[in-house]
Design the sequence.
């Protein structure tokens, strides 16, 4: 699903440039069924090096899917992310801080 960084307009999509942002904005959201994560990870021969990895054992046992969001977070507006998404555990948050705006990826449990 697209986030605030892309807006539907008629038959197209308007993409928001990520430079000079005045707030943190959501780029996209994806839902993953938790029962397929181990299989998919092994099938695609992935390694955890330079990947966002969320330990599924830290999610509640009732979790049936994981929601992953990607945000563009300007250095000077980190508080706008924290206001929108309070209480995100550092276990489920990955920050790519070498770029501006920073790219933050986080996961949280969903039960569908």
Sequence:
């Amino acid at each position: 699903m697209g986030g605030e960084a892309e807006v539907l307009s008629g038959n197209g999509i308007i993409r928001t440039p990520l430079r000079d942002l005045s707030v943190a904005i959501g780029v996209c959201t994806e839902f993953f069924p938790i029962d397929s994560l181990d299989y998919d990870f092994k099938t695609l021969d992935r390694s955890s090096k330079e990947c966002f990895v969320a330990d599924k054992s830290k999610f509640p046992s009732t979790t049936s899917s994981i929601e992953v969001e990607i945000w563009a977070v300007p250095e000077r507006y980190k508080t706008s992310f924290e206001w929108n998404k309070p209480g995100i555990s550092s276990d489920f948050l990955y920050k790519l801080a070498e770029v501006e705006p920073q790219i933050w990826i986080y996961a949280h449990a969903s039960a569908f």
